[in-house]
Design goal:
Shape of chain B: globular
Structural class of chain A: mainly beta
Structural class of chain B: mainly beta
Largest interface: A-B, 25 and 24 residues
Strand content of chain A: over 45%
Shape of chain A: globular
Strand content of chain B: over 45%
Radius of gyration of chain A: 13 Å
Helix content of chain A: under 10%
Helix content of chain B: under 10%
Order of helices and strands of chain B: EEEEEEEEEEE
Oligomer: heterodimer
Order of helices and strands of chain A: EEEEEEEEEEE
Number of strands of chain B: 11
Number of helices of chain B: 0
Chain lengths: ~110, ~110
Amino acid sequence: NAGVMQNPRHLVRRRGQEARLRCSPMKGHSHVYWYRQLPEEGLKFMVYLQKENIIDESGMPKERFSAEFPKEGPSILRIQQVVRGDSAAYFCASSPGQTDTQYFGPGTRLTVL
Amino acid sequence: GEDVEQSLFLSVREGDSSVINCTYTDSSSTYLYWYKQEPGAGLQLLTYIFSNMDMKQDQRLTVLLNKKDKHLSLRIADTQTGDSAIYFCAESGSMDTGRRALTFGSGTRLQVQP
């Protein structure tokens, strides 16, 4: 059973460009969470999705950030018009939905030049 | 809101025991977790404890939970150099509130001296 997969592992963008981060949950998991880790800090919750629904987006910045988890395909975290402060590691986690245990992917390290 | 705090750094000698401490504020937390992060890597789930338990042991790992003081600890017996990493404490909310997001501490960097 493959773990949570994220791609790309590293992403470099210039200020003003768009960043798209992809997450494929573990097989059988229908719940996806996105977290952001700034340098030397812990992880901060951003958004929680189930298939085709955003359940909790209380940690998402109000502008430029959006997330989706379509019926088919991976979950996407989209950051429009990136700024240097968006540079961070973005982690996706998934759970089967019946328990709270979340399993994390390897992360996407976004660098904004 | 919820808050989780950890000390930033711990240094031990190889073969000694390590104890990493964590405090949290949300008394309704259902599960408490310990994750390990090696440099440049994702988070590896080490162990977790349900809030109605006091202790859980898994090979070299022992988790102690003092719910009254909202204090969680992770003891690693016979610490090895491969245990050098950042250890994160995290809590999840009550099933009743429906909060599924994990709240993480800032992480404790464990350095194991040979």
